[in-house]
């Protein structure tokens, strides 16, 4: 309270608010001083449940994302000559909705393709976008995940049906394969955690990387492979474990199937020859393998160095052998399957509760009965009652009573249906034109242009792109531009006029991630998993709209939902949350075809009853309930102890109240077993298709260079000041302003290249000029370019400048994994010339 003695706060001093960093998957908690819409001071938030005050150097100048000449503030329509004209929102939404409906009528909704839907910090827009996907009857979608994680995701799905994470904070032996967490993070509080492992003489860090990365620099063992040879290196590690009798046999017997087949095949591997092929001394491979196998615990993390290199899906499989053969699962310092707020890839699945079976059966019986006989009439009664004030309290009490009975019974099947529809888990298995494999709804990014640039009748005719810049970020940018030019309609939703937006028929300006409710669904932690719903720090920039409002506007115009349902659900929401839940769950149970529209339904009904400005938190209500339904015991241990409907409700309320984020599940190490999705609860260790692949590479001598292209170039290295292309203003960077091409000392000497020299680098698909940096951590024959460069930014004089090399002018679509088409961006044959 303000008194005479304490002066009122000075508005010109600004105010502190809580949010998160949007530059990598860690989403560290931030406190920000906002003044006149500027992010003037930024510091780590000690209250954040995941990062506890930690940040790296990157978010300190996030204002370069929030404010600047890149922000767009009006919808735009492309003219025939390729320039853009500003149009108002109604015109834009009317025209786009009409065109979508027209394409659907002529070619089918499955020719409308959806791409993106979230960067490193913003998944709420994409989640609402999923309602549009279903409203138009789309079937095919993709995102950046399908150029890195789909191979690994498929391997995970066959082994145990879920995603794993390592307990690096507690592990005795940490193994990083093609992963440089010092720069790219991916591990919470990465630098202190790495430093701690490095300093502790009883713990060991093993890094597999052709380059002496910052992480390799402080590692105990660096296996400096030749680029692209990890399949031989990692299989030699696994073979050492089997051939030296270091497998954990009692564990394998109890918890896995198929181990004998795998071990037999690994026993046939010639370790000495494989070490020659990957360029790592045999003795070092053996030392590393023994260290992993004899430790109390080991955890493994693979990333782009192998996921964007030859044999990536096979390497994902082999990497998991290191911890599976040694039994490093579901124990401190090992690997774990974790809970989810909502799975970003793979299936939602409820885990068995600790509740006694008899109590569960009884509740299901009562609940199903209540549901079948009473729910629909009750929904209507509740809706009617809400219009008469006196009966509202009665209606609220009645629905609470009904909920107690019915919720546990219907919740799981209804929630499962909603989750699987929203995540497109049961979508097509292959793409319509080239029959490429689809994993978890995501078509391979390298297939997109092939599904457009063809006469095939089922080719994609329209593309909706949200929060992504595929012209810049996917292989062979020029090809993507050509594909966009062939489409009848393309819509980009972004905060900036990106390289992709410049090819689109319509561009819709989104409010920034600090101007709206926003959240990331990277909930990948174990045993404590956290989620943060970020509240806006300021009002939307005039002319922009938050994505949920954009999607609702289009879906309204498509007229796919009948008004009575919206009115009924809204009326129920006005009575009470319980009445709404009853009406909502029974509506989806009775009309399962509505499941795909859930985000829209929640937004237009429950959303309108939430406090001013919180409408888009309506979807979080749904996610909180799905989360509690799927993982009731873990959620209870995190402090949300109510049973049934009350549990998700308590979680939702806390998510809204705690701006720094909440811990939503608290697991015990042995709980990781419950997350295995195979009915037998075991890890199915033999994957015949990949064992055949392992056999195939036995006959392959790796070689990626030629006289024409004597170097292997890794295109897209994560550095101190790269963050995909989330920040466009080049002034954001404090170092490495131009994004230098790194080259080994020996190669630089031989070619007469000094630090700072201008060089031209050429690949089979393109050529670029850049500055060189002689880097003694590079091995001979390997060069490296950073990611995130080569975007256009207004230069302040009416023109535009472009800094550094756009990576995907140099990559090719055809160099890709044989299973899931992931591109070999870290393995591009190249040559260099001094300019
Ligand atoms: N600073 C920063 N951090 C980021 C991002 C960013 O843009 N900037 N982006 C985020 C995103 S989207 C992602 S996916 C992650 C990626 O995170 P990382 O995968 O860790 O990042 P990269 O630098 O692409 O690749 C890691 C390492 O792979 C090595 N490598 C290259 N070729 C090979 C090879 O043939 N074999 C092996 N074993 N290693 C090889 C490189 O030398 C490099 O050190 O980073 C996230 N974090
Ligand atoms: N050669 C090569 N290519 C690569 C890589 C590589 O290593 N080498 N790495 C790849 C990897 S791992 C990834 S993850 C991809 C990333 O590439 P993309 O999927 O293209 O993602 P970002 O670069 O993160 O782009 C995010 C976009 O979202 C916009 N944006 C920011 N905030 C908002 C918002 O609130 N709403 C909306 N609607 N838009 C917003 C930004 O302006 C930006 O255009 O790049 C890939 N491309
Ligand atoms: S870039 Fe990643 S590690 Fe650095 S502060 Fe942001 S979220 Fe945290
Ligand atoms: Mo990524």
From TrEMBL:
Q: Which GO terms describe its cellular component?
A: membrane
Task: Alphabetically list the UniProt keywords.
Answer: 4Fe-4S, Iron, Iron-sulfur, Metal-binding, Oxidoreductase
**What name goes with this protein?**
4Fe-4S Mo/W bis-MGD-type domain-containing protein
One Pfam match, by short name? Molydop_binding
- All copies of domain 4Fe-4S Mo/W bis-MGD-type, residue ranges: 14-70
GO MF annotation terms: 4 iron, 4 sulfur cluster binding; metal ion binding; molybdopterin cofactor binding; oxidoreductase activity
Checking InterPro entries in the record gives: Asp_de-COase-like_dom_sf, MoPterin_dinucl-bd_dom, Mopterin_OxRdtase, Mopterin_OxRdtase_4Fe-4S_dom, Prok_molybdopt-oxidoreductase
């Amino acid at each position: 309270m303000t008194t005479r003695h304490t002066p009122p706060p000075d508005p010109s001093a600004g105010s502190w608010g809580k949010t998160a960093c949007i530059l990598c998957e860690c989403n560290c908690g931030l406190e920000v001083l906002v003044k006149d819409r500027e992010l003037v001071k930024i510091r780590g938030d000690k209250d954040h449940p995941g990062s506890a005050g930690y940040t790296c150097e990157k978010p300190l100048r996030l204002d370069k994302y929030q404010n600047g000449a890149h922000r767009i503030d009006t919808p735009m329509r492309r003219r025939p000559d390729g320039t853009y004209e500003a149009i108002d929102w109604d015109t834009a939404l009317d025209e786009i909705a009409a065109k979508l409906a027209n394409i659907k009528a002529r070619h089918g909704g499955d020719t409308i393709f959806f791409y993106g839907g979230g960067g490193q910090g913003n998944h709420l827009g994409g989640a609402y976008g999923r309602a549009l996907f279903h409203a138009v009857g789309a079937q095919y979608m993709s995102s950046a995940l399908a150029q890195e994680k789909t191979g690994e995701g498929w391997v995970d799905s066959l082994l145990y049906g879920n995603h794993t994470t390592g307990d690096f904070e507690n592990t005795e032996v940490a193994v990083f394969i093609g992963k440089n967490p010092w720069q790219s993070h991916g591990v919470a509080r990465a630098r202190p955690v790495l430093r701690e492992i490095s300093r502790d003489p009883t713990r060991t860090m093993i890094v597999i990387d052709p380059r002496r990365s910052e992480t390799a620099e402080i590692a105990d063992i660096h296996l400096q492979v030749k680029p692209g040879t990890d399949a031989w290196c990692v299989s030699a590690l696994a073979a050492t474990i089997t051939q030296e009798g270091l497998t954990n046999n009692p564990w394998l017997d109890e918890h896995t199937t198929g181990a004998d087949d795998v071990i037999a095949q690994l026993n046939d591997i010639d370790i000495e020859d494989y070490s020659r092929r990957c360029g790592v001394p045999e003795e070092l491979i053996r030392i590393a393998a023994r260290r992993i196998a004899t430790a109390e615990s080991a955890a493994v993390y693979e990333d782009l160095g192998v996921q964007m290199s030859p044999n990536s899906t096979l390497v994902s499989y082999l990497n998991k052998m290191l911890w599976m053969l040694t039994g490093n699962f579901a124990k401190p310092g090992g690997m774990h399957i974790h809970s989810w707020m909502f799975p970003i890839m793979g299936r939602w699945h409820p885990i068995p509760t600790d509740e006694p079976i008899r109590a569960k059966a009884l509740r299901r019986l009562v609940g199903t009965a209540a549901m079948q006989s009473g729910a629909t009439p009750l929904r209507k009664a509740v809706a009617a009652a809400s219009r008469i004030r006196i009966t509202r309290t009665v209606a609220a009490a009645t629905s609470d009573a009904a909920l107690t009975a019915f919720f546990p019974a219907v919740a799981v099947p209804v929630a499962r249906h909603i989750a699987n529809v929203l995540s497109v888990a049961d979508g097509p298995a292959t793409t319509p034109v080239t029959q490429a494999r689809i994993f978890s709804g995501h078509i391979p990014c390298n297939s997109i242009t092939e599904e457009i640039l063809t006469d095939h009748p089922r080719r994609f005719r329209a593309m909706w792109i949200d929060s992504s810049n595929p012209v810049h970020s996917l292989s062979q940018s020029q090809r993507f531009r050509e594909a966009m030019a062939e489409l009848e309609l393309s819509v980009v939703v972004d905060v900036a006029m990106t390289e992709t937006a410049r090819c689109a028929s319509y561009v819709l300006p989104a409010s920034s991630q600090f101007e709206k409710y926003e959240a990331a669904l990277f909930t990948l932690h174990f045993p404590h998993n956290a989620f943060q719903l970020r509240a806006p720090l300021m009002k939307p920039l005039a002319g922009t709209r938050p994505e949920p409002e954009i999607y609702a506007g289009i879906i309204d115009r498509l007229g796919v939902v009948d008004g009575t349902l919206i009115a009924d659900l809204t009326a129920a929401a006005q009575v009470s949350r319980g009445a709404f839940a009853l009406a909502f769950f029974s509506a989806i149970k009775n009309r399962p075809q509505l499941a795909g529209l859930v985000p829209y339904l929640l937004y237009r009904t429950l959303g309108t009853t939430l406090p001013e400005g919180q409408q888009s938190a309506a979807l979080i209500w749904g996610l909180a309930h799905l989360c509690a339904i799927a993982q009731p015991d873990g959620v209870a241990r995190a402090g949300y102890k109510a049973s049934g409907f009350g549990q998700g409700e308590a979680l939702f309320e806390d998510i809204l109240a705690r701006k720094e984020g909440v811990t939503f599940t608290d697991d015990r190490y042995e709980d990781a077993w419950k997350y295995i999705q195979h009915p037998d609860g075991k890890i199915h260790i033999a994957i015949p298709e990949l064992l055949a692949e392992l056999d195939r590479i036995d006959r392959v001598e790796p070689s990626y260079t030629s006289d024409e292209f004597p170097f292997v170039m890794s295109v897209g290295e994560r550095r101190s000041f790269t963050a995909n292309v989330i920040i466009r203003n080049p002034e954001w960077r404090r170092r490495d302003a131009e994004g230098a091409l790194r080259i080994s000392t020996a190669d630089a000497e031989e070619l007469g290249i000094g630090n700072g020299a201008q060089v031209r680098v050429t690949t089979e698909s393109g050529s670029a000029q850049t500055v060189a940096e002689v880097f003694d951590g590079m091995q001979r024959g390997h060069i490296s370019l950073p990611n995130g460069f080569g975007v256009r930014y207004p230069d302040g004089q009416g023109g535009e400048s472009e800094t550094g090399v756009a990576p995907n002018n140099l990559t090719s679509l055809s160099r890709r994994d044989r299973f899931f088409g992931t591109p070999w961006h870290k393995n591009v044959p190249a040559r260099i010339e001094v300019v």
